[in-house]
Design goal:
By secondary structure, the chain is of the alpha+beta class. Helices cover 31% and strands 34% of the residues. It is built from six helices and eleven strands. It is globular and about 60 Å long.
Length: 226
């Protein structure tokens, strides 16, 4: 994934198209939060992310390729340009679709297919908003916790608490930002990594009011668990 100037995504939205860009409002989201949430959602669904800007994301999926083993072989793909526009209640996500054909020399030809894929884009936006609403709803997140950590893990956590040390994890920063969005004022205590897997981490964030939030992150997408 490469970081590109914001102008790249904006340019895609300035192209002449037969239909307006479908959109949805993510309540309470900043453009950065909406962008990162959309990226995590795209990754989970098997899309690739060739370009990311401050308020834009390009995601794509191959529709047809002449030789899967040759990265330079001609191929046809669908490319979605997402734009994240701040509004008073949150951030509006706008999508535009292009069908892209590439040659063996790396040349590209694209056609705007937003109108053709309007229903698919609308379904994707509805799913994104539902996931975001679920993500924001602390009460619903708490009810989804089905099991506690094993005793051995609890003991290791207690030991880390007593010594004040412990693993940090890849998404500790994301866990802290999510905790802050839930009204948690961070303390000087380090956020602890309680458990982890190939694509997920479970963190414990301490708040000044005495609360201790358990935050589960998958590819940087975090939700409180209790």
């Amino acid at each position: 994934m490469r970081i590109v100037p914001v102008a790249l995504g904006v340019l895609a939205f300035e192209l002449v198209a037969a239909a307006p860009a479908p959109g949805v409002l993510l309540y309470g989201a900043t453009p950065e939060q909406a962008r990162d949430f959309a990226i995590a959602s795209a990754y989970r669904r098997g899309w690739t992310i060739p370009a990311v800007g401050e308020t834009t994301v390009e995601i794509e999926q191959i529709l047809e390729e002449s030789d899967p083993d040759d990265p330079r072989a001609p191929r046809r793909l669908i490319r979605i340009s997402a734009l994240f526009v701040p509004e008073d209640p949150g951030t509006r996500v706008l999508l535009r679709a292009r069908e892209v054909q590439t040659s063996a020399t790396g040349e590209e030809w694209s056609t705007d297919v937003t109108e053709r894929y309007a229903e698919n884009l609308g379904n994707a936006l509805s799913a994104l908003r539902s996931k975001w609403d679920e993500h924001r709803d602390t009460g619903a997140s708490r009810t989804r916790e089905s099991a506690r950590a094993p005793a051995a893990l609890d003991e290791s956590i207690d030991g880390a608490t007593q010594t004040g040390v412990g693993p940090v994890g890849t998404w500790a920063y994301d866990a802290e930002r999510y905790a802050e969005s839930r009204g948690c004022e961070l303390t000087d205590a380090k956020t602890r990594l309680e458990a982890s897997g190939p694509e997920w981490e479970q963190h414990r964030v301490q708040c000044r009011d005495g609360r201790s939030l358990q935050v589960h992150c998958r590819l940087g997408d975090c939700t409180t668990r209790r």
